[in-house]
Structures are given as structure tokens and as C-alpha cells.
Amino acid sequence: MGASHFRTGEAFGRQIIAYAEKYGNRIERKTCAMITAIAIEGFKTLEKVSLTLGNLNFLSGTNASGKSNFFDGLRVLQGIGYGLTIDEIFNGKPKTAYSDLWEAIRGGSSQANFVRRGDAPLNGKNREIRFSATLKYPNKSSEDIKYYISISADRGWVAREKLLIGNRPVFAAEILDTTACSGGLEVLYNGGDRRKFDRSRPVLHQLLGDGICSELDATYLKHCIRTLSNMQHLAPDPATLRNYSQHRAVKRMGDRGENFAALVKTIIADEGEKTAFRSWMEQLMPDDLNDICILEGALGEPLFAIADRGHHYPAPVLADGTLRFAAITAAFFQPDNPAILTLEDIETGIHPSKMRLLVELLANLSGHLPIQAIAITRSPQLLNWLGPEHYSTIFVCKRDEATGATRIVPLSEITQFLKIAPRHPLGDLLAEGWFEGGVI
Fold first, then answer.
1. Which of 94, 125, 156, 333 is the most exposed place for a label (fewest CB within 10 A)?
2. What is the reported pTM?
3. Together in a domain, 210 and 238
């Protein structure tokens, strides 16, 4: 049974669509784009992968199949959007008075390169890691942005980089001397003007601050930077969600759920948003919830709670699954919404009978709001509620036993799957290990 057969009542469905139409414009004003295509080469286990993405995407596969490595690749792109140096992106950057903490990519630069099984580790050194992304604007006539970058992680520099608007090159950069310990990037702007830039960081930010860009090109560069940087890698931690928030109100919570209660306080201050948010929670807890509320500590610090028949149940007494579902739901109602939301192991703590509701949440809100969701799941029950309309964006990850390289393939491209799918629920095929067996 697919997502088009959800059991949620028609009235509730109309309410969610009405919410999206009313409040979705606040997000579109930020000119958010989505990544419609992404390619990664030479990064960790991702020797060469290329995916076409949609609004809602799922990655599935066994342990150590490369799912988290793909998410790490997205974080590299986010670091590029932030304007960090290549060394900072891979090895981290401490918090300062002028910038937030940036956590290192798992393994740092020393473990960033793909190395085939059987090869000496040094064979992965000095190899370039390549990323490319196509950015598209939903419901807009703007041309696509195509961004390419080639990185030497262990040396901490950009080897090549370019940006195209449609098929028109805006800039193309190439390192001047690959043998020198110091040097620069030669950048060809708009097919004419040549400049030299620092090779330790991506050209995107440097070119924007150089003053040679036309107003139109500067706008596209800003769009690209905004989309790459505006990712949220949400991994709600129940222990964090149970805490009082440090701030009274925020527009976005932390990746582990920091300041979750402060975000909910902001959400429920608007009656329309509160109604929509509460509607999802009522679906999760139909007999135990009358309202969403915020309790306050001695200094006014907020704490998440639910109310039922006159009693308040604060976050510390709520189940892990309830808190995680509340945090994932709240992520779609953040005033400062991300363009791209990643969710790892989204089913953790959710009862199998509520998996359908979780899929409804992701499908409805990512479908009606300009937020691109990419989720990792290991749950057969969750996949059972996804239908043929999702096959092109359900990706199976599998490691090649001989080389160690990860393959990531959409279900829609597995011929054997398409033949048997009408007769077998997706969850059963996942539980039996068929997904991995179908990826050759």
C-alpha cells in the first residue's frame, strides 16, 4: 500500500494543505532551491555515485553500506556554502566570537579519500575528491545552477571549481601549480577576466567579495551559497530534548535538538502554526493529548510539555519516541526553515503502528513546503507505506565486496524489483535482504 492510500482523514489532509498554502510563502521568500542532482567521486566509500533527488528521499541499506558517508558528503557541500577552508571543512573549526563551532567530517582529511580494498592507504593520498550539484528552484522560471568542485583533502586546497547558470559558465577555476606547497587558483570569470584567488577555500565566496561579478551573477552565487549552507542535519537526542532550553525563543533548533522547547514556544505563539503542529501530535497520541504547552523554570527557561485532561506532562516523563516525533515534526514548522533537511534513522523509538504517520508527515510537508528531505531508514514497516510514486527516490546502498565501493541505486532502476514489487511489500523485501541482492 502506497503513500497515496494513507488512512489520515480527508479533513486532516485538507488542513495540512491549507497550512502549507498559507505559510509556505514565508519560506519561498528566502529563495530556497533544492538539489535535483548530485555526484560524488573519490570520497570515503563513494568511489563514484550519481543520484537524481526529489522532495522526499530515502536511503536504505545494511550497516557500513555507505549511507552515512553520503550524508558526510552533504556536509562537505554545506561547509563549502559556509565559506570554510578545505582544512576546516574536513578537520573542524572551533567556536569563536565571530563564528559557530564546525565539527570535523568523520575521520577528518586523513580518511576522506576512497581507497580500494587491497590497496595501500597511501594510494588514496593526493587524489582529488569531486562534487557536483545541480540546484533548481521549485515553481520558478530561473535557470538551474550547476556547481562543480574538485578538492585535495589531505593538502587542503581546491584543485578545480566552476559554476554554470543553465549552460552559461560564470567562472572556472584551476590550480596554478599542483607541485608547489603554496600558490593560488587562476579564475576565469565570464570567459574573459582572469584573477588569482586563495586555493585554500572555495572560489564561491571569494569571487562574490571581489567586486567583479555582475549583479545577476552575484545573485546566482548568493542563491548557490544559501542553498548549500542552509542544510540541517537533524539527529534528535531524547536526553537533549528533555532539557530546559538555554534561550527563551529560537527560530531553529540545534541538530541534536538543542533549544527544542524554545522552538516549540516560538511555533505555538502563532495560532495557525500551533494548530497544524498539534494536529500531527494528536495523530501520534489520539487518547493522551489535548494541547502542546511550554512550562517555565525558575529563570523563565522553557521546557516542552503536553497537556491532557488538565494535567501537564513535561518532557522528562515523555517517551523517547514521542519526543523524537515531536522534534521531527517541529523541524518542518521552524520559522528559519532549512532548504535541505537530513534525518538519520528516523524510525528510532517510533512504534511500528505509527510508521505510517511518520511517512505521512514527511510526504505531506516535504511535498507542500519547499523543504527537501533526505532520510536514512532501516525500518521494513516504514517502507511498507511507500508506493510506486516513491520508487525513484528510494535508494539502496550496497558495498562491493571486491573493491569496497558503495553503489547507490534507486529502486526504479532495479529491473528485478519492478517485476516482483506488485506482489511483495517493500518492507518484506528489505527484511529478507532482497534489496542488497538486487543491486549488482
1. 94
2. 0.90
3. no
